[in-house]
Amino acid sequence: MEAVFAELAADLAPVYRRRDLRADGVLYLRGLLMPGVAGNCWSIAEAVGLDRPYRLHHLLERAHWEEDTARDVVRAFLTRHLGADGGVLIFDETAQAKKGTKTAAVGRQYSGTMGRVENVIVAVYTTYATKRGHALIDRDLYVQADWFDDPARMTTAGFPKEHAFATKPALALAQAKQALAAGIRPEWATGDEVYGRSRELREFLEGAGIGYVFAVPANHQLTTSGSGRMRADQALHLVEPDRWNRRSCGAGAKGPRYYDWAWIATDHPRRWLLIRRSITDPSEIAYFYAYAPEGHPCP
After folding, report:
1. Rounded to 5 degrees, what angle do the CA atoms 14, 1, 75 make?
2. pLDDT for 168-201, tens place per residue?
3. I want to staple 157 with a disulfide (CB 3.0 to 4.6 A). Which of 104, 113, 120, 289 is the partner?
């Protein structure tokens, strides 16, 4: 493992303009990777043998280094170790609670992490997963539209003048394009309803020959192969009682996670509606919109 860490540290060296920043960057990264260490500068400094966290504070708050270049380096490193072909792009966002109004992009918005509306910052991430493992390969801060009504606030928070509003699906789409431009060739993509609603994201993936399975809301509109235009929850009633298939969607803490599944054809030969029903509570229903390119195995 030390050899792999040294490889990553060497890859990141050109990101920093000065030797001291390069050394601090290596210390910070080493601390982040240590088991049982909280992800704050005080805990990391103690774990890596520093008396105080001020060097790490300076690295993160004031030092000049190329953040996007670091992202590209890490993505290339992960691609070498996870494999460029046959993986899955996973789009998701996460929120971190904040107090006050000065933190960049902070605002009251729904947090799936907390299950309610809170004062948080939200970032959109892309994870790349293969049989060898999984890791984050991209990130973007989601900035709510009201921030752009106050240019002075944007400037104070450190946003460049050219920073433009983008929805979460638009950020995910940009990240998908960057992943493909970097040489990653995934077979599949997935995400929750936030991304499943985006026609632009789905069409881009289809055009790139990438299959997807996205969660969609109950009111998602589709055209079935024989019954016309309807909502996903209306298509549920097309499933006959004996047409459900019981399958596991993966291992959980207590073993395989079994659900009942139904597969409904649409008016497109490569798109389907996938419905998942809880075994213990049949009223618990989830809907997914799926696309499988020609030649993609879909067991």
Report:
1. 45
2. 999 999 999 999 999 999 999 999 999 999 999 9
3. 104
Comparing CA positions, the residue from 39, 27, 168, 159 lying closest to residue 96 is 39
Question: Model confidence over 18-41: pLDDT tens digits?
Answer: 999 999 999 999 999 999 998 899
- Strands 221-224 and 188-191, sheet pairing: unpaired
297 inside domain = no
Q: Based on the domain organization, do 173 and 272 belong to the same domain?
A: no
Beta strands 188-191 and 88-97 are parallel
Residue where one domain finishes, among candidates 36, 65, 94: 65
Backbone angles phi, psi at 180, to 5 degrees: -65, -40
Q: Same structural domain for residues 97 and 28?
A: no
Q: Which of 100, 25, 96 is nearest to 67 (CA)?
A: 25
Average pLDDT, the chain: 94
User: What was the pLDDT predicted at 106?
Assistant: 95
Range of the domain at 33: 1-65
Same domain for 181 and 226? no
3-state secondary structure of 217: coil
